[in-house]
Write a structure and sequence with these properties.
Elements (H helix, E strand, L loop, with lengths): L7 E2 L4 E3 L2 E3 L1 H11 L38 H12 L8
Antiparallel strand pairs: 1-2, 2-3
Length: 91
Amino acid sequence: MAGATQPIPTELLTVVGEHLETAPLVAEQVLLEVPMKPLCRADCLGLCPRCGADRNLTPDCCRDERGDARWEALGELRDRLSASPPSQPTR
């Protein structure tokens, strides 16, 4: 069929008639270049995920020294393993 206007999918681009649809490829490349964590400068600490404060001005705004209670059992295991002398391998 000469002059068919049906889209012909290729690996990355779609050909419609005599036009090459590059919009999806360009959009993907733009999104890949957007930083995952946009910062004002390279040494910026970012914003606090809890209160939104600028961590450069108040780095200890929401610091919770307790940690997450769900990790306590692993912390206790770590402490027990580090306190006990290393065992000698048996032969």
